[in-house]
Amino acid sequence: MQTLLHRFPIIQAVEWAPSVQSAKRARFEAAQRAEVPGFEVRQRGQSGELRSADDRAHFYPVTYVEPLDGNERAIGFDLASDETRRIAIEAATTSGNLVATAPIRLVQQQGSQYGILLVDSVSSGSSGPGIVLVALQMSTFAATLVQPLRSTLNLRLADVAADTPFLDEIPRSVAILFETEFNFGNRRYVVSTTPSPAYLATHRGWQSWVVLAAGALGTGLIGGLLLLGTGHVYRFEQLAKKLRENEVSLRDKEAELESIIYRTPFMLIRLDRDLRYRFISEAYLAMTGRRPEQVVGKRLSDVLSDKDFQSIRPHVEKVLQGNRVEFEREVHYQGVGRRFLHVIYTPEKDDSGTVTGWIASMLDITERKRAEEEQKRAAEAEQILVRELQHRTNNLLAVIQGIAQKTFSGSESLDEARKIFEGRLMALAGTYRRLTKSNWTGVSLSEIVQLTLEPFAARTEIEGPDLMLSAKNAQNFSLALHELATNALKHGALSSAGGHVSITWTVAGGGAGSVLRFRWQERGGPPTFGPGQRGFGTLLLESTFQAVDIDYAREGLTCEIQVPLGKDEFGTAPRLSA
What we know:
Mean pLDDT: 76
CATH class of the largest domain: Alpha Beta
Largest sheet: 7 strands, mixed
Number of helices: 15
């Protein structure tokens, strides 16, 4: 008997009930009390309580039940006291075949769930005539057999002639996608299934699910009932062959399902109501760098840091209330670092609607998040560049407008003014080319001076530290040097063969308070006289620089400029050139 119960753990009890005539009831009860104190033949009252059985011609009281633990209430119960049981007993004794009862409430069952009895009549033997029966809790029976696919399908099992199903996991509003009927123990049963929410959450279609459901039910539920219900060797052999074939088919389907689970980018985990891990997919293990034994059976709070656990706690509470939850979050995994996850929690419920746990499907979206952040930074940088470009363009246009206004408002002819304007624009353009080349990080003062005076290199002396000027100062010095060089060529030292120009500069102070002291000195040219009128060059110098000193000495013009330097402008060791 223990072998049978071990092989079929979904059997609630195996019982023996002898046939007892009414006239022998008292003697029978007395004999049983010798082994079971307080024994009496009982039946259910109207309110469901067990009481002494009414008198009738025959009794079938249960005297043996295995296992006894948990089934003590069945001892003494008269099977003939219930109409459903009595009809099955009469059918079994008349036909000599195994008979299944209609759905009934088992004596052992305290709740509202229903089961069936498999009844077989014994006409003679050492214990006399009687009834052997197997008590099956059908909802447990069906749920146990489909447990490996619980995350794949929802099940409804019902007796066709009964109003209440044994097991019903399918809401009435959900369409049935697979249904099959079968005969067993002179009764007809119908099995209906639909894909579970967890399956639909991870699969686009349900067609392959139908194949899997058909194979699983054929192997498990129907096959299990037939195996319990037959005693014929031939049918055992045929059924075993069919079961082996279905088992191979099911293993193939399970392998296919496992392949899908393992290949999907989703990480799947299953947790119970106690927040313990029951299943983890390979994708989850690969990302966390853990082994199954390090996670399965552990509580959620044992695997996640306290901070991460507290952050998902509201989502866990919500799914345990029976709600589907979807969110994105950042999690820190030891040895892996921070990862962004898109998470869906789907509640799991038992046949009474109680939430027993949940399935979490997670997709690592770290790279997508990083790409989005990078795109956001690039967009912000682009906006900054656009604003900077607009600012610089506006400044450049203002400078060009000022140059044009001063150039064309002088006493020169239009042709002369045009040539002067082009020269000034060329000087400005040269500076902007150098600024663009340096990515607007600055331009060397030495480079500006040497490029401006390159045609007169043999007649110039240049001395000063290598100093990087800001874009604004580089623009101002380029225009200033162009005006000084143009004036020297037309009226000053560079207009005669013996003249020369000395350009020197030093940096006083240090850091943010540094000051550039620039000196332009002409010698050897024609005698210098004060300007008859203030030209563009003088106006440019005085309007551009705060501290400008121009000396029109007879031996040659001298111009001294002092400019505060910014924190990004710096100098190196002095460099001399002539």
